Amino acid sequence: MEDFIEEIDTPQIAQVSKPAPNFNVETVIKAGEFSQAKLEDYKGKWLVLFFYPLDFTFVCPTEITGFSKRYEEFKALNAQVLGGSTDSIHSHKAWLKELGELQYPLFSDITRDMSWDYGVLLPEEGIALRGTFIIDPEGILRYALYHDLGVGRSVDETLRVLKALQTGELCPVDWTQGKETLGKA
């Protein structure tokens, strides 16, 4: 565990196949309880980490509730989900009154440090792009997807990629679980 923490404490920008940038952020869970989340909390599990631009917007709630509805599928794959934005935990708590209870925590990156480290920060606006990251049980970043503010991400695609990564094999275009792989990576 100590080696894991040393690796994740090294400052860096997110890069696939390298240790994921460390984080320690406040979260809001369930019916508005506050907590903390650190990268080391996910040691031994896969982590699906996603950033969204802002609370109380139009596309974001479709993604946030979409991940929550499919949470049990992630859990069955030994994966945890953590989503968030540069909004405060108090903004998240207020928004949960509209969204309803989620199956995973929302993090607050009010300092914008985490958004910067993961390469999603739009500094002039102070918000994050939509970014999705999959981190393996050893803390290595295995997948990074960035896209513009106006298009929601696909929970189906995130699950497909997670399953492909978990095979440890080469997976061809449009690979889905049950199809043949191309052998060991």
From TrEMBL:
InterPro entries: AhpC/TSA, Peroxiredoxin, Peroxiredoxin_AhpC-typ, Thioredoxin-like_sf, Thioredoxin_domain. One of its GO terms (cellular component) is cytosol. Keywords: Oxidoreductase. Residues 14-167 form the Thioredoxin domain. GO terms for biological process: cell redox homeostasis; cellular response to stress; hydrogen peroxide catabolic process; response to oxidative stress. One of its GO terms (molecular function) is thioredoxin peroxidase activity. The keyword Iron does not apply. The active site is at residue 60. Pfam families: AhpC-TSA. Thiol-specific peroxidase that catalyzes the reduction of hydrogen peroxide and organic hydroperoxides to water and alcohols, respectively. Plays a role in cell protection against oxidative stress by detoxifying peroxides. Belongs to the peroxiredoxin family. AhpC/Prx1 subfamily. This is Alkyl hydroperoxide reductase. It comes from Candidatus Uhrbacteria bacterium GW2011_GWF2_39_13.
